[in-house]
Amino acid sequence: MSKEDFRWGPIARGLYTGLIWATVVIGFTYPFWLVHYLALLLFLGFALRPLLAGSGLYAIYGNIVEAFGAWRWRKRIAKRRQEIASKQRDAPYRHKRVKDPRLPKNW
Asked: Taking the chain, what is the end-to-end CA distance rounded to the nearest angstrom?
């Protein structure tokens, strides 16, 4: 997997930036947590990306997202095909001058 395949999204970048800015608050309010918090930030900043890319978890996640997107697209296309078939089936009845007695009342 090349470096270009793996990119953090805007939400992840925003959260990480917020965590960096929250370091000051954590340092003043909970100074005994500061060392652990900085270790977490270093892990998230430098070690998480190679871990996800090297273990293949990112590729698995990408395949799952792609399969779900394809499933949603197939479902949308099937629904649209059904709508078109329904309109074609009903077209002769809708444009008649004489009402067909087999049709419902408010057709």
From this structure: 58
Tokens 């273990």 correspond to: 55
For residue 81, being part of any structural domain is answered with yes
> Which range marks the domain in which residue 49 is found?
9-55
Give the per-residue SS3 of the chain.
CCCCCCCCCHHHHHHHHHHHHHHHHHHHHCHHHHHHHHHHHHHHHHHHHHHHHHHCHHHHHHHHHHHHHHHHHHHHHHHHHHHHHHHHHHHHHHCCCCCCCCCCCCC
d(CA 14, CA 51): 21
pTM above 0.85, yes or no: no
Instruction: Quick: pLDDT tens for 25-41.
Output: 999 999 999 999 999 99
- The answer to whether residues 43 and 14 belong to one domain is yes
Q: Check: CB of residue 26 under 8 Å from CB of residue 34.
A: yes
